[in-house]
Specification:
The complex is a heterodimer of chains A (about 325) and B (about 350).
Chain A lengths: L2 E3 H15 L3 E5 L15 H5 L4 E3 L4 H13 L3 E5 L10 H8 L2 H5 L6 E6 L14 H5 L5 E3 L4 H13 L4 E6 L7 E3 L14 E4 L4 E5 L3 H16 L3 E5 L2 E3 L3 H11 L2 E8 L4 H13 L8 E5 L8 H7 L3 H13 L1
Parallel strand pairs in A: 2-3, 2-4, 4-5, 5-7, 6-7, 10-11, 10-13, 13-14
Antiparallel strand pairs in A: 1-8, 6-12, 9-11
Helix pairs in contact in A: 1-7, 3-4, 8-12, 9-10
Chain B lengths: L1 H8 L10 H26 L14 H8 L9 E3 L5 H7 L3 H8 L33 H14 L6 E6 L6 H12 L4 E7 L2 E2 L2 E2 L12 H5 L3 E5 L3 H16 L5 E6 L19 H6 L3 H12 L4 H22 L22 H9 L1
Parallel strand pairs in B: 1-2, 2-3, 3-7, 6-7
Antiparallel strand pairs in B: 4-5
Classes of the chains: A alpha/beta (about 325), B alpha/beta (about 350).
Chain lengths: ~325, ~350
C-alpha cells in the first residue's frame, strides 16, 4: 500500500467527497486544465467535468461571493485561493458577508475556502503568509490548519461536510515532504474543533499547529536528549472554534506553556491562547506563558532573512529551557 | 362591422402582454411602497424606528417594474439594495415584516439583528443585502451558478446603484457572471446620487449602461420612472437569461427625491432639481397613463389605495407595541452547532 503525501491526502479527501456528494464542486484560478498551481486538483477536470470544476477569472471576491451564493442554494463549494495570501482580496466578502450570513439572516453557507499557506519556501512577502489571525477575530468562521497527511484528508472532508464556512489553511512546505500510510477505503473524518496530542510529556507544553508541529517535535526530542525534559506537543488542528479543553488539560498537566506559531507576533493567535489560559487555568501555571513567533516584519525573500525572521527549532529550545528553569 | 365598432369602444391592449389585472398589481405595489414608507416616516418621527430610514420616493416604478418581470412560480431570485423596498414587496415581503425590522422587534425576520430591509427568505426568493455595495453581485452570481449547474430554468436579479458600480466587487461579480454566461440580470438604479456624490464624480462614462460593453454583455437603458418601460426592459433580459443567453446589464434612469436617509438635508442638491423630478413622479404618471388608456378607472385605483391604507393600519397596529428581543438572544446562532455558540462561553466564563 502506497504512502500518501500531505498534498495527495488533500486531493483524496476532495475526490472522495465529490464522488460521495453531487453537490460538492470546486472553483478557483487555474484549477481545471492545469490542475492548480500546486497540482492539488490534478485530474479533477477529467473525472468531474467543467460543470463541477470551474476555472474562474482572477477575482477572489467573486470566487468567494459566488461560492456563498451557491452554498445558500444547497451546493457545497470548495473555493481555492491560488496562494492563501490572496485571501485578503476576499476579506470583505468573508468577514462581512459569509461570516455573518447565518447570524443576521439565517442563511446556511456551507463552503470551504482553502489554499497554500506558510513560509520556509523562499516565497517572499506574498507567497508565504499565514493569515489565520486576520480571521480568528471574525465570529461565524471556522479555521483549520492540518499538520499531518491524515488530518489533511480528515479535515478537508469534515470541512466539506460542515454546515458553516470553513477556512482550510494547508501548509505548502508540507505538501510533498510529509508522507503517511493511509489505508484505502478508510473513512477519515477529523473532527473540527478537536486538538491532538502529537507527543505526550509532563514538564511543559508546546501549543502549536500546522508546519510548526514538526519544529516543536524536533525541539522536544532535543530537550529530552540534552535536558531530560518531557515535552508535550499539542497540535491544535483547528483554531476556530478553539479546543480550550485540550489546552487546559495540558496546562493542568505540565504547568508550563510555550505557544509557537509561524505568523507574526502582534495580534497573533498566541495572544488569544494566552488570554484563554489566563481566564481558565491561571492558578495552574508555574511560569508565565511564553510565545515563539515570527518577528513583526513582512516576510522577506533572501534565505538569510527568512530563516532569521521565521521561528526555528533553536528558538523553541531556548524558550523551552527558559520556561523549564523558571 | 362589429369588430371595428368593438375595438373603437374598448381600450388598446396593455403593452408587453400584461393584463389589466397585472397593471393594477403594478400600481398596487408602487402605492404600497410609498404608503409604507410614509408610515415609517411617522414612526421615525415618533422615534419608534430605531436606526436610519431610507426612502425610495420617486423610485417606486424602477423597483416594482423590474421585480415584476421575474417569475415567482418558477423560483426566480432577487437581491435588493436599500431603495428596493418595492422589489421586495413584489417578491412577497410583508409590510408587517418591514415594520418590525425598522422597529427592531423580537418577531422581526432577523430577530432584531439586522436593520431596515436587510433581510431575506430563500423560500420566497430574495436574499438580504449587506451594506457593502456591490457585494451582492458575486453572491447572486453564485445563486445563478447553482441554477446553471442544476439546469434549472431560473433567473437571479441583483440591484446596484450608480455608486455600487464603482466597487471592485461589482466588477468581479459582473465579469464572473458574463464569463460563465449565468442566468442573471443586473439592474442599475441610476438615481443621480450616491449619498451626496453626483454621478459625474462617480464615473467618467456618459451612461452607466456603457459599461456593459466592457463585459461583453447586452446593455439596456430605460426610463426608470415609467413602470411599463421598466418592465418592458427587464422582461426580455429575464427571458434571455432563462433561455441560456447569459447576463444583461439594465440601467434605469430615475431620481432620488429624498436624501440618502431621513437625516440628510440634501444641501448638495442644486435648486430646482427635486421639483423638476417631482413633475415626473412615477405614481402620478402611472395614474395618468393607466386612466387615459382606459386600463384603470380612478375609482379602481382609489379602491386599491383604500385597501393599502387598511392593510397598513392593521400592520402598524399589530406590531407597534411589540417587545424588542431579549438581550441574551444575541448570543445564539453564529454557527450551526448550538454547542459552539457564544452562549456556551458566556455561561462558562463570563456568566
Amino acid at each position: 500500500m502506497a504512502e500518501v503525501t500531505y498534498l495527495e491526502a488533500i486531493r483524496q479527501g476532495m475526490q472522495e467527497e465529490m464522488r460521495r456528494d453531487e453537490n460538492v464542486f470546486i472553483l478557483g484560478e487555474d484549477i481545471g486544465a492545469y490542475g492548480g498551481a500546486f497540482k492539488v486538483t490534478e485530474g479533477f477536470l477529467a473525472e468531474f467535468g467543467e460543470r463541477r470544476v470551474i476555472d474562474t477569472p482572477i477575482a477572489e471576491a467573486a470566487i468567494v461571493g459566488a461560492a456563498a451564493g451557491a452554498a445558500h442554494m444547497g451546493l457545497r463549494p470548495v473555493a481555492e485561493m491560488q496562494f492563501i495570501d490572496f485571501i485578503s482580496c476576499a476579506y470583505d466578502m468573508l468577514t462581512n458577508y459569509v461570516a455573518t450570513a447565518r447570524y443576521r439572516a439565517g442563511l446556511p453557507t456551507p463552503m470551504v475556502v482553502r489554499g497554500p499557506s506558510g513560509g520556509y519556501v523562499r516565497g517572499g512577502p506574498f507567497h508565504s503568509q499565514n493569515p489565520e489571525a486576520a480571521f480568528l477575530h471574525t465570529p461565524g468562521l471556522k479555521i483549520v490548519c492540518p499538520a499531518t497527511a491524515r488530518d489533511a484528508k480528515g479535515l478537508i472532508k469534515s470541512a466539506i461536510r460542515d454546515d458553516d464556512p470553513v477556512l482550510y489553511f494547508e501548509h505548502k512546505y508540507l505538501y510533498r515532504r510529509i508522507k503517511e500510510h493511509l489505508p484505502e477505503g478508510e473513512e477519515i473524518l477529523t473532527p473540527i474543533g478537536k486538538a491532538r496530542v502529537a507527543r505526550e510529556g509532563k514538564d511543559l507544553t508546546i501549543v502549536t499547529w500546522s508546519a510548526m508541529v514538526y519544529k516543536a517535535l524536533e525541539a522536544a526530542e532535543r530537550l529530552e536528549k540534552e535536558d531530560g525534559l518531557q515535552v508535550e506537543v499539542l497540535d491544535l488542528r483547528t483554531l476556530l472554534p478553539m479546543d480550550d479543553e485540550a489546552i487546559m488539560t495540558s496546562v493542568r498537566k505540565t504547568n508550563r506553556v510555550l505557544i509557537a506559531h509561524e505568523d507574526t507576533r502582534t495580534g497573533g493567535v498566541a495572544g488569544e491562547i494566552t488570554a484563554r489560559i489566563n481566564d481558565q487555568a491561571f492558578e495552574w501555571l508555574d511560569a508565565p506563558v511564553r510565545r515563539v513567533t515570527a518577528h513583526d516584519v513582512p516576510l522577506p525573500y533572501a534565505p538569510t532573512l527568512e530563516d532569521f525572521v521565521l521561528p526555528q527549532t533553536d528558538d523553541l529550545v531556548v524558550a523551552a529551557r527558559w520556561l523549564a528553569a523558571y | 362591422m362589429t369588430t371595428t365598432a368593438a375595438s373603437a369602444a374598448t381600450p388598446a391592449a396593455p403593452p408587453h402582454g400584461l393584463s389589466r389585472a397585472q397593471l393594477h398589481e403594478l400600481y398596487y405595489y408602487m402605492r404600497l411602497t410609498r404608503s409604507l414608507e410614509e408610515r415609517l416616516v411617522n414612526l421615525y418621527r415618533q422615534t419608534k424606528v430605531i436606526g436610519g430610514l431610507f426612502r425610495s420616493l420617486g423610485q417606486e416604478a424602477d423597483s416594482v417594474g423590474s421585480a415584476y418581470a421575474l417569475d415567482r412560480t418558477r423560483g426566480d431570485f432577487l437581491s435588493p439594495l436599500i431603495r428596493n423596498l418595492g422589489s421586495m414587496l413584489v417578491q412577497g415581503a410583508q409590510p408587517l415584516e418591514i415594520l418590525r425590522q425598522y422597529m427592531a422587534k423580537a418577531e422581526s425576520p432577523t430577530r432584531g439583528r439586522e436593520l431596515n430591509i436587510h433581510y431575506g427568505d430563500l423560500d420566497r426568493g430574495f436574499i438580504g443585502q449587506i451594506s457593502h455595495l456591490g457585494d451582492m453581485v458575486p453572491v447572486m452570481a453564485g445563486v445563478a451558478l447553482s441554477f446553471k449547474m442544476r439546469k434549472q430554468p431560473r433567473v437571479g436579479l441583483v440591484y446596484v446603484g450608480d455608486g455600487a458600480m464603482s466597487t471592485g466587487a461589482f466588477h468581479e461579480g459582473i465579469n464572473f457572471a458574463a464569463v460563465q454566461r449565468l442566468p442573471m440580470v443586473i439592474v442599475c438604479e441610476n438615481n443621480g446620487y450616491s449619498f451626496s456624490t453626483p454621478m459625474r464624480k462617480q464615473t467618467a462614462v456618459a451612461q452607466l449602461v456603457d459599461k456593459a460593453a466592457a463585459y461583453g454583455i447586452p446593455g439596456v437603458r430605460a426610463d426608470g420612472n415609467d413602470v411599463l418601460a421598466v418592465y418592458g426592459a427587464t422582461k426580455p433580459a429575464v427571458e434571455l437569461a432563462r433561455n441560456g443567453g447569459g447576463c444583461t446589464l439594465i440601467e434605469l434612469v430615475t431620481y432620488r427625491r429624498k436624501g440618502h436617509a431621513e437625516h440628510d438635508n440634501q444641501s448638495y442638491v442644486p435648486a430646482g432639481e427635486i421639483e423638476a423630478w417631482e413633475a415626473k413622479d412615477p405614481i402620478d404618471r402611472c395614474i395618468r397613463d393607466f386612466t387615459a388608456a382606459g386600463w384603470a378607472t380612478a375609482g379602481e385605483l382609489a379602491d386599491i389605495d383604500a385597501r393599502i391604507a387598511s392593510l397598513l393600519d392593521e400592520a402598524v397596529g399589530a406590531c407597534e407595541n411589540e417587545p424588542m428581543p431579549e438581550a441574551m438572544s444575541a448570543l445564539d446562532g453564529v454557527l450551526a452547532d448550538p454547542a459552539r455558540t457564544e452562549l456556551e462561553w458566556y455561561r462558562r466564563i463570563d456568566g
